[in-house]
Design brief:
With 798 residues, this protein is an alpha+beta fold. The protein is built from 23 helices and 29 strands. The strands form six sheets. Strands 12, 15, 19, 23, 25, 26, 27, 28 and 29 form a nine-stranded mixed β-sheet that branches.
């Protein structure tokens, strides 16, 4: 006799738990795949662990845990009325009243209790079910899912703050009376985007946008001259003063003015009869988010053919997550990541190795993401477009304990890329041969020559090559001169420049690469040959060439007052580059190394001292003083901009808070006993590992042997900071090969800062360029190769 379904359920009641308020409940997405209650077969919620699984994967959980009782949630679409009205958003938000309406289909939800392994089903709700089961399911259904708690489904612009300058605003009575219409800038012919200064009643045009549109900066210039703090945008004032756009220049933000009626009345403005004719700043932001009208980078206006299938899966924007989506799409096009997390690691294998909570296991979530993007399972046309997959669980685990990436704010794609590779390297630390992040890693060789003629060689590892843009190398100088001349003439005539008349500098990528290798002066360099600080000449080249070379274009520079400015420049990027000539040669015949001891016999190794000027300027921006010193030293005191770039890229390094060591690897290597090194090599250890172990153990062979066995990752380490003695050609943990590369992808950015705007990826695959714009995937018509922020080159084998 087989037990009845109800008897079977009662026999498993000990495996059913009633969730408590602190329990994380997953009921919207499978923790192994991107299946949802809308997928075929629905979603199965484990009534013991409260993890969710798709139909294909719930059996794996039963095999692993033995948990037999599940709540199956299924959602099926309801018929949509043909006359359903479209609603225009009025609020910069998703999933709230007045926010974006995606015209989503309504779904009908059904529930069943399912008992594995035979998938015995009982209906829910049912009064015949045991009370414990009914209480558990009710608690799950009414609880807010962990997915929603961890990744907010709605994002809303911050509420405006009352300006600190409102209450004591001094208004000047100079006889100005502002008419109800017919406004014009006091300095040019602009009749739109006009701002009324609330101190003196003068009307000026707004700021010029990055693309040449907007105003002529006369309002901000007036503030710089007078320091009158507040202005209101004409055309946004109506009887409802709350919607008026008031801007505070010293606070550099849109603000609230509770006394606006009084301030307007001072200049004879009757706001009750005014009509709205201009967008507020928030509405313009909303309009941009609605239309994404950033033409070139997103190929707006082009007939982009949607693409579907394996490798053509989009990523849902979780709210300002395009920095992550664009980077991930490129990374999972590389052979290393495809092999590691898709071809050679199944979902079942990753789940079997995962911790008790696979949602918090990075290896599991990387594998889930790879299969979601590459399998084609979720890249199917739905009304001629695809929905894409939402990388919520991946974002939660990759951004864990990171204050910026765990937020809903826009971030720098470069910073995320480096953080991502760091996390991948850590999760693979015990098996470096499997680490796909190594394919991006390379060693830089730096040569320093002091006035004595003697030299030192340093090594450092990195994942990106950050390039400055030498604007003086622009190839269209004549056109630029003509444009600036026309611009000056138009300014005198108070006329606008059309967008298609703007000429931007065109700088060849070769010039950017050349600037990296060009000799540069290093100040405050301590020379053991001269026994004094001096100015050395530094050159940098590659000690190894990576499988994938990532070039970061420094389009953001610091202007006077440490205000970040984006360079409005095009980079002429070839499809194929050859950087063989940039390989370092190491110590050359006839070169003499700087001594490890000074003339007086003191052991003063050749090292850099951080420039106090650079450190103080960085510290004044709020950075940690020790971090600033490290940034200056690691960029050879090249300048504030270079140090800041290094600092932003290395803020999450595990040793960032370690004290600065004033004993170089070079000096320590010098005093390692060669007999001890040979002894360890005879034991079967690599030479560089033997030297590291002897350094770490003070030269004791027995302790060095123990050190090697307790540091299995040592053979993969590439962090040999300085070596004045003979340099190794490569490193066991870093790939190397020829220096010819082909362009395989680029990440472009539009906006005034890396922390705002939008990121888009273009990837060359299957013989064509493909645009990845969040969930939109299509055949690129005109890839913006000259507008990249990050360029990804793949080595040409053979």
């Amino acid at each position: 006799m087989f037990p009845s379904p109800m008897e079977l359920l009662r026999s498993h009641l000990s495996r059913v738990r009633i969730p408590e308020p602190t329990n994380r409940i997953y009921k919207s997405e499978c923790c192994i795949s991107f299946d949802t209650p809308r997928s075929e077969g629905g979603l199965y919620v484990d009534l013991s662990s409260f993890l969710a699984f798709g139909k294909e994967y719930v059996g794996w959980n039963y095999e692993k845990t033995g948990n037999p009782v599940y709540l199956r949630i299924q959602q099926r679409p309801k018929p949509v009325p043909e006359d359903r009205p479209l609603k225009k958003p009025t609020l910069l938000a998703i999933g709230v009243d007045g926010g974006f309406d995606y015209q989503e289909t309504d779904y009908e939800e059904t529930h069943n209790i399912v008992i594995l392994p035979d998938y015995v089903s009982l209906p829910f709700p049912s009064v015949e079910l045991p009370e414990k089961v009914r209480l558990a399911v009710d608690a799950i259904l009414i609880a807010e899912g962990a997915e929603r708690k961890e990744q907010l489904a709605a994002w809303t612009a911050e509420k405006k703050k009352v300006s600190a300058y409102v209450m004591n605003l001094q208004q000047i009575n100079s006889g100005v009376v502002v008419p109800p219409s017919g406004w014009k800038c006091c300095k040019c012919d602009k009749t739109d985007n006009l701002w009324l200064n609330l101190t003196d009643g003068m009307i000026f045009c707004g700021r010029r946008n990055w693309d040449g549109s907007g105003g002529n900066n006369h309002a901000i210039e007036h503030y710089n001259e007078t320091k009158y703090p507040l202005a209101v945008k004409l055309g946004t004032i109506t009887a409802d003063l709350v919607g008026a756009d008031v801007f505070s220049y010293p606070e550099d933000d849109t603000v609230e003015d509770p006394l606006l009626a009084q301030h307007l009345a001072f200049f004879g403005i009757d706001f009750s009869s005014l009509q709205k004719t201009e967008m507020t700043t928030a509405e313009r932001e909303l309009d941009q988010n609605t239309n994404f009208d950033w033409n070139r980078i997103q190929e707006s206006g082009q007939e982009v053919e949607p693409l579907f299938g394996p490798g053509y899966t989009g990523l849902v924007n979780l709210g300002n997550s395009c920095y992550m989506a664009s980077t991930i799409q490129v990374v999972f096009t590389t052979r290393a990541f495809i092999s590691r997390y898709y071809e050679h690691q199944s979902l079942k294998m990753a789940f079997a190795m995962a911790t008790s909570d696979p949602t918090l296991d990075l290896n599991m979530q990387l594998t889930k993401l790879a299969h979601g993007l590459l399998s084609g399972k979720y890249s199917v046309p739905i009304q001629e477009k695809q929905e894409g997959v939402p990388p919520r669980m991946f974002k939660t685990v990759i951004a864990a304990n990171h204050p910026e990436f765990s937020s809903m704010r826009q971030q720098d794609a470069l910073e995320f890329f480096l953080h991502f590779l760091d996390q991948v390297e850590r999760v693979n630390s015990g098996k470096p041969e499997l680490d796909p992040s190594r394919s991006f890693k390379f060693i830089i060789e730096e040569r320093l020559q002091c006035p004595s003629g003697k030299v030192a060689y340093n090594k450092r590892s990195d994942y990106i090559l950050s390039l400055s843009i030498p604007l003086h190398e622009a190839t269209n100088k004549e056109q630029l001169e003509a444009f600036h001349k026309m611009k000056a003439e138009r300014k005198l005539e108070a006329k606008d420049i059309d967008r298609d008349e703007i000429v931007r500098p065109r700088v060849p990528l070769e010039a950017c690469l050349a600037s990296f290798s060009a000799p540069e002066e290093v100040h405050d360099f301590y020379s053991t040959s001269l026994n004094a600080k001096t100015t050395a000449i530094k050159t940098a080249n590659f000690a190894t060439f990576p499988d994938y070379l990532v070039l970061h274009m420094r389009k953001f520079v610091m202007e006077e007052g440490w205000v970040p400015k984006k360079l409005d420049v095009y980079i002429d990027v070839p499809d194929v580059i050859d950087i063989t000539h940039m390989r370092g040669k190491g110590l050359q015949p006839g070169e003499e190394l700087l001594p490890e001891t000074g003339p007086d016999g003191d052991v003063e190794h050749t090292h850099l001292v951080a420039s106090e000027d650079i450190v103080s300027k960085l510290a004044a921006m709020g950075f940690n003083y020790l971090h600033c010193q490290k940034a200056a030293i690691n960029t050879a005191n090249a300048g504030v901009e270079e140090a800041m770039t290094w600092l932003l890229s290395h803020m999450n390094d595990p040793d960032i808070d370690d004290p600065i060591s004033h004993r170089s690897d070079a000096m320590e290597l010098q005093f390692v006993d060669e007999t001890s090194v040979e002894t360890l090599i005879s034991f079967g250890f690599q030479e560089d590992v033997a030297r590291k172990a002897l350094k770490a153990s003070g030269g004791d062979i027995e302790k060095a042997t123990d050190w090697i066995f307790s540091h299995p990752e040592a053979s993969a380490s590439a962090d040999t900071d300085a070596t004045s003695s003979g340099m190794q050609a490569g490193d066991p943990g870093v790939p190397d090969g020829i220096g010819r590369y082909k362009l395989m992808a680029l990440v472009s950015h539009i906006g005034t800062s890396t922390h705002c705007g939008h990121y888009v990826a273009h990837v060359h695959k299957d013989g064509r360029w493909v645009i990845f714009n969040d969930s939109k995937v299509g055949a690129s018509v005109d890839p913006p190769k000259d507008m990249g922020y990050l360029y990804f080159y793949e080595r040409i084998d053979g």
